[in-house]
Amino acid sequence: MNAFQISIVVANLIFIAGLFGLVLKLRVSSNATVVLKSFFSFQCLILCVIIILALFDIYLRGYWTTKFLIWLFMLTASFLFAFGDRQILKDPLLIFTGIIFYFPVASMVISLVIPYMGLFLTFGVWLHIIGDTKRFVMRTKK
Fold first, then answer.
1. Domain for residue 116, yes or no?
2. What is the value of pTM for the model shown?
3. What is the domain range of residue 32?
4. pLDDT tens digit string along 26-64?
């Protein structure tokens, strides 16, 4: 299995576990939700700094560092949406984490509804999340 297939499988497993938590209304404690919320806010700040630095061609050292931070951000957002205490999470944060939580399903639906355009859009977004866009580019022989 390559990195793209592994990331799709992991994202779908997290989505299925989250749906299981949403259906059964499993929630973590209020204290754990507050800690996760502050950790998620810290991750948002770090990713904003990374994006701003990337605009000036300054990147973090290491191939897996940015990937790890992005995946940790997505996993924390999904866990917070699925298992977080709803009274502590405010509407903007709940909407934002919900968008991240439903992203795997939305990307599949978009690729089915808009056959070619949706496939290229969702495939491009997933490749940028994974960070392996150069691996999937077709190369011509010289």
1. no
2. 0.73
3. 3-102
4. 888 889 999 999 999 999 999 889 888 878 888 788 777
